[in-house]
Amino acid sequence: MRIAIIDLGTNSVRFDVHQIGRGKRARPLHREKLMIRLGQGVFISGKLDREAVRRTLDAFVSFARTAAQFRAEKIIAFGTSALREASDGDRLLEQIRKKTGIEVKVISGQEEARLIARGILANEKFAKGRFALVDIGGGSTEISICRAKEAFFSESFPLGTARLQQIFLKSSPPRGKDSQGRDAVDQLRAYIRSVLLPKMIAEGWPKVGRVIGSSGTIRALQKMVRKARNVKGVSREDLSEFVRRMSAMTTTQLLGIPGVEARRVDMILAGAILLEECMKSLGAKRVAFTDYSLRDGVLDEEMSLHRQKKASHLGFHLEDLREKARKFGSSENHFQQVAEISETLFDRLAKVHRLKPHWKTYLVAAAILHDVGEAVSPAFHEAHSYYIVKNADFPAMDKWETDFLAMLCLGHRGGKVDFKAADFFKNKLKKQAFLRILALLRIADSLDRGHKNAVQEIGIRVEKKRVVIKLKGKSSVDLELLRLEQKKQLFEEVFKRALVIEAQSS
Q: pTM of the prediction?
C-alpha cells in the first residue's frame, strides 16, 4: 500500500510518499519540503495572507500530481497552528478540496503533541531516565515529558517562531521598550514563561536533564552552534551565549553566521530564545536533535492500521473517548454497560445487520459518548451531546466520522433522523450503516435504562421473521422492558424483523 502524508504547518509544508508493506518499517519513496509561510501575518491580523494562500494552493496542486504519479492509494493531509487560528482557514481548505480533491484535517494542539511524541518514540532509542521532547513550530510548541517509550505529560503551547517574531521581534536587532523599561527580548522571555510555567507548575511536571528537539528551527540552531563552537552536543550555556550575540545583530549580520538559513533568518532569534526558555523551565542542560516528528507519528498510526486491517484510527482511541466522557461527567457505569451491550448485540446479530466488523468501533464510540450532553442539562441532553461531539476535540477522527458520531448521539433517544443534517448521508453505504448502528444503539441504551446494570445476561435468538432477546437480571428489569418497547421501532423497520423481549429475574 502506498500512502502520501502532507503536513501543512505555519512556516513550511512537508510532503512524503511511503510504501507500507508487511514489515515494521515503511519504505520512503518521495520527500519534499516547501517554505510557504502560511502563517505570514496571521497572528496579528487573524487572517491568511493572500500570497501565502496562493503558495499553498500551488503546493497542493503539485503534491496531488506527484501522489498520482506514485499511485498513492491514500492521501492524509493535516493542518496545524496557523489554520487553527485563521478566521478564514475553512475557505482555504475548501479551495484545496475543489482544486485537488484533498481533504485537509485541522488537528488540535493536543493531537499534534500526541502524534509528535508517537513519531519520535516509535523510531528513536533513548538512554535511561526522563527526557523532554520539544517541537518548535511556527505557531505552537509541543512539549512531552517521557521515559523510555512512554509520554507522561504532553501539551501544546501557543508559542512559535512566526507568532513570537510577529508580536515581539519586529526588527533586527529588536527595538523598543515597554512601560516597565523592558526591551523586546525581555518582554518575549517574560511572555514565554507566563505561558509555560503555570501549566508545568499546576500539573507538577518533573524536571529533566535533556531535551530531544524536533523541527527545522531546532535543527538550524544546533547546526549554527556546532559550527561556531566546534562541539558535538549543544548545551544551554552555548545557546544562551548565542542568543546574547544574535540579540544585537542586524539581518545582514545574522546572515553572516555560518550555518544560518536565509529563509529562517527573521525568526531564528525568536526560536533560539524560545528553546532557551523551554530548557530553563524544564531544567534541561543539553539538547539533541531528532529527524522524526509529527508526520512520523501519522505514518506509525497508518502502519498500525494497515497491520491490524482496521478501517479507522478511531479504534486506537476508545480509551481517549472514555476519558473525555468521564471529564464531561457521564456515568461511567452506564456508558461502560451500554458499550458492552452494544458489542454483544453487534457480534450476535452479525447475520442480521450484515455490517463489516470495523463498524463496531463506531457503535462502541457512540455508546461511550451518547450522554455527554447531560453535563449541560439532563433535559434534551441528546441535542447537547450532538453539539459537544461535533465541536469538541476528539482525537483521530475525520470530519465525517465526527458528524457520524454526533448524529448517533442526537438520535439515540428516538425520533426521526434528518437526512439533510450531515453530508455523509449522501453516501449510500454510510447512510445504511448509520441507521443499522443507531437501531442497535437504541436497544443497547434501553437495556440499561435505569443506569443500575439491572441486566446481567442477554440471550439472543435469530429467527427468520423475528429476533428474540432474553433478559436476565438480579433485580427487576421492568424499566428496561418498558423502554425497549418504546425504542424498538427503528430496529424492526431497518432489519425487517419483529423484536421480541423476554425477561426473567434471578
A: 0.81
